[in-house]
């Protein structure tokens, strides 16, 4: 994402918070971002697209933070999963997105609804996979059922507590309580085999959320362009990590777990530099690519 686009997104977010989504005009955004009308329309066709970009930026921050939390830990560590789930609330609060979500619920724009659906499905898929990591392969057929229930419990717990107490619940406390409930649910499901979210349903969900598939050639092209912009003034470690990722993506066999471990340090190497935004985009792309490769590896033949 280039500097101008990020500038517009940040200006739009603040205006949506200050004035509300409905009362903010495109002219307001252009003026606040200090860009020309042409520059705005080069990146966005409407203020709804600005709102979508805000949601996607938050999603990317969550993904990056989750990768960093999992660095040098065991996949079956429940405490890591708890932290990863709690991150969502922390990011939303830090970016003041709760007010913006209120506007989303009142908006009937089909494009916005489609993006929200895809983000929800991606979150369900991620959590189902993490439940298998933590609780074992034997719960695979129940993983989507539990992921859907867990996300609903977390969301409504925050909402009810805020409505009644006028205070924000501690994310870690809510998530820990929900995970305890999920463990009880798993025990019940394994005894009764009573599943609402069947394999047919979650395969249909996966197809509904299908995006442009991230390929190694796409990432190689992006990394090659990125490394060409680096200069001798950039940190040597950052250059080494970028070249390592490029070499791995060009190899016949990708070491998934080593690459996943490298991503956070690659990302951190470019923090507070002119390359930070692009390094983050590359990290997200590689992370998505690794998830695809893991799914292919774990899929039954």
TrEMBL record:
DNA-binding span(s): 25-44
Domain HTH tetR-type span(s) in chain numbering: 2-62
GO BP terms, alphabetized: negative regulation of DNA-templated transcription
Taxonomy, superkingdom: Bacteria
Matches recorded under SUPFAM superfamilies: Homeodomain-like
Protein's UniProt keywords contain Amino-acid biosynthesis: no
Record has DNA-binding as a keyword: yes
Keywords: DNA-binding, Transcription, Transcription regulation
Pfam families given in the database record: TetR_N (PF00440)
GO terms assigned for molecular function: DNA-binding transcription factor activity; transcription cis-regulatory region binding
Name of the protein in its database record: TetR family transcriptional regulator
Organism field: Ureibacillus chungkukjangi
């Amino acid at each position: 994402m280039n500097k101008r686009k990020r500038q517009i997104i940040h200006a739009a977010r603040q205006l949506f918070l200050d004035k509300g989504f409905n009362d903010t005009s495109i002219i307001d955004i252009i003026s606040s971002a200090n860009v020309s009308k042409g520059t705005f329309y080069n990146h966005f066709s409407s203020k709804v697209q600005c709102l979508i970009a805000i949601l996607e930026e938050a999603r990317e921050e969550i993904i990056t933070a989750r990768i960093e939390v999992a660095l040098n830990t065991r996949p079956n560590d429940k405490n890591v999963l708890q932290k990863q789930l709690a991150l969502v609330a922390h990011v939303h609060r830090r970016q003041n997105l709760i007010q913006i979500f209120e506007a989303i619920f009142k908006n009937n724009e089909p494009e916005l609804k489609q993006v929200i659906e895809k983000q929800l499905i991606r979150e369900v898929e991620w959590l189902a996979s993490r439940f298998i990591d933590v609780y074992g392969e034997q719960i695979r057929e129940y993983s989507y059922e539990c992921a859907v229930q867990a996300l609903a419990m977390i969301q409504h717990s925050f909402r009810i507590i805020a409505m009644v107490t006028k205070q924000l619940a501690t994310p870690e406390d809510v998530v820990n309580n929900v995970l305890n409930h999920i463990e009880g649910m798993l025990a019940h499901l394994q005894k009764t085999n009573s599943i609402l979210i069947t394999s047919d349903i979650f395969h249909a969900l996966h197809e509904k959320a299908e995006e442009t598939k991230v390929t190694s050639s796409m990432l190689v092209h992006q990394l090659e362009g990125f490394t060409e912009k680096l200069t001798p003034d950039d940190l040597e470690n950052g250059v080494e990590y970028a070249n390592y990722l490029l070499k791995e993506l060009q190899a016949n066999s990708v070491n998934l777990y080593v690459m996943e471990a490298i991503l956070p340090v690659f990302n951190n190497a470019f923090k507070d530099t002119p390359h930070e935004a692009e390094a983050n985009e590359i990290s997200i792309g590689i992370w998505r690519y690794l998830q695809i490769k893991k799914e292919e590896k774990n899929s039954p033949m």
